[in-house]
Design brief:
Number of strands: 13
CATH class of the largest domain: Alpha Beta
CATH topology of the largest domain: D-Maltodextrin-Binding Protein, domain 2
Largest sheet: 4 strands, antiparallel
Distance between the termini: 33 Å
Structural class: alpha/beta
Number of helices: 20
Helix content: 40-55%
Shape: globular
Strand content: 5-15%
CATH superfamily of the largest domain: Periplasmic binding protein-like II
CATH architecture of the largest domain: 3-Layer(aba) Sandwich
């Protein structure tokens, strides 16, 4: 029996079909045998107008070395930069929501935990039943990944009797199910949702798995730094990659489609894919330029298992533990203040990793504040003083108040607390302090304040940005703890 590759449609027709699928002209797919149908919650009503009002767009993604990762503590990734470009265009900030060990992206999307799924996410008939998609921004092939010492599989019939490991929620699972429905005798080994494509490729390389499936762009990058794997067999051609959104968010889809049309389109005359300069730069940076891409990869792949975030992790953990402060919060402050540059100096004279102002420091010699350990100790001492001041509050309000004081000083926060009380609001609730800080930008309010005018929007953004980063760091640390608690071999037995 001969088996056909999925989506094997010549050139332009394949691209046109992909676009038709996006606008909802796809046919109904076959049901998956021997499995209960997947059910998802009804989508919340939250469209672009509400996103604009909130000021942030929430990106659901997986932590890996292509979509989103940290490089020296700072945000990186193809999907992250693309979403950030869209957000900048609309005056929004990006809030990254990392998928946890047991999280299902469609469930979180429909529940409103995120506004879009951006994770090299392919359009499939099964997914189209539950969510909508933007216009595409890439096409990829699904390839088989096998050990280098296994004879190269060159035809689909060579898969007979093979065991292939993939996640249930991946597009690869649907591909393998379709091949089985064609009569191909393969075993689909369903691994936990905590396994990303890179981790599965790594396990194929070390002999723990017989084979897996990857998009060709992901495989190309992974094979540069994971030895012992090879690929030649294409299982599905021209998968359409796009952003996933809720079905009841037509405004958001329209904005995304307009954005994508500027960066990715198909020329009518010959079906050629045309990309903007920006999109080409991103593709080269994260997928095509091996030298540039590999600067990130070695450490970012390891990060999900070790919890490594920045070059100063060990030092910060030690100092923060002594003070009873969460080390991930300290790192989030450090990233915001200096982007982990120990030689940073602001226009206001703040110096070092934690941007310490010398006149407020116990360190007499300013030059010593450029020493990472001294600077971190001063920063933690100062941060902890404010955390202790608000120890009676819940963690969210406590952290928010302490960060605001760290940024703008106690005087302006005291003004905001007085104003909040005068307005009949609780001065121990950060949302009321944030509102008061914004009001102190207007003469009606700041003329009566002891410390006068202050650009409160900067402090409000400062607190929000650090807390968002802190949540990301926390999620990464949780993933690392998960993998440290059980070995990778154990992970394969816990389904």
């Amino acid at each position: 029996m001969r088996f056909s590759k999925l989506h094997t449609i010549p050139g332009y027709l394949a691209l046109r079909l992909a676009v038709l699928v996006i606008v909802g002209l796809s046919g109904c797919g076959k049901s998956i045998e021997d499995e209960e149908p997947v059910t998802y919650p009804e989508p919340v009503s939250f469209d672009f107008e509400e996103i604009e009002e909130r000021g942030t767009i929430r990106m659901l993604t997986r932590y890996n070395s292509s979509s989103y990762f940290l490089h020296r503590g700072m945000d990186r990734g193809f999907e992250f930069e693309l979403v950030s470009r869209f957000a900048d265009y609309h005056g929004l900030k990006v809030e990254v929501v990392l998928l946890g060990i047991d999280d299902d992206p469609i469930t979180l999307l429909n529940q409103g935990e995120g506004d879009l799924i951006a994770s090299n996410y392919a359009i499939t008939e099964e997914r189209l039943r539950h969510i909508a998609f933007s216009r595409p921004y890439n096409f990829v092939n699904q390839v088989l990944v096998q050990p280098v010492d296994m004879p190269l599989l060159s035809d689909l019939s060579d898969l007979e009797g093979k065991t292939i490991s993939v996640r249930r929620a991946s597009s690869y699972y649907s591909t393998l199910q379709s091949l089985r429905e064609q009569g191909l005798d393969i075993t689909i080994d369903v691994v936990g949702e905590d396994w990303n494509t890179e981790a599965l490729i790594h396990e194929v390389a070390n002999g723990s798995l017989q084979a897996t499936v990857a998009d060709d762009n992901l495989y190309k990058v992974a094979s540069n730094y994971i030895e012992g794997v090879k690929s030649g067999l294409v299982l599905a051609e021209q998968d359409t990659v796009a952003w996933a959104i809720r079905k009841n968010a037509p405004q958001l889809k329209e904005k995304m489609d307009e954005f994508m049309a500027e960066h990715f389109r198909i020329r009518e005359s010959d079906g050629r894919v045309l990309r903007s300069a920006f999109l080409n730069i991103l593709l080269r940076r994260y997928y095509e330029d091996e030298r540039q891409a590999n600067r990130y990869r070695d450490r970012s792949f390891d990060m999900v298992y070790t919890g490594y975030i920045s070059p100063y992790d060990d030092l910060v953990k030690s100092i923060a533990e002594e003070a009873g402060v969460d080390w991930k919060l300290v790192l989030a402050v450090m990233a915001q203040e200096s982007e982990f540059n120990p030689n940073a100096r602001s226009w206001a004279g703040a110096v070092g990793l934690m941007q310490i102002i010398p006149r407020f420091s116990r360190v007499e010699e300013e030059a010593l504040l450029y020493d990472p350990e001294i600077n971190i100790r001063e920063g933690v001492r100062y941060l902890n003083k404010h955390l202790n001041r608000y120890a009676h509050l819940d963690s969210l309000n406590r952290y928010s108040m302490a960060l605001a004081n760290y940024n703008v000083g106690m005087g302006h926060i005291a003004d905001a607390r007085i104003l909040a009380s005068q307005l009949g609001n609780d001065p121990d609730e950060w949302e009321h302090i944030a509102d008061a800080l914004l009001k102190l930008m207007h003469r009606k309010y700041y003329q009566h304040a002891r410390y006068g005018f202050k650009r409160g929007i900067e402090t409000v953004n400062y607190v929000e940005d650090i807390l968002n980063r802190y949540r990301r760091y926390h999620a990464i640390a949780d993933l690392a703890e998960h993998f440290q608690q059980r070995s990778m071999n154990d992970a394969m037995t816990i389904r």
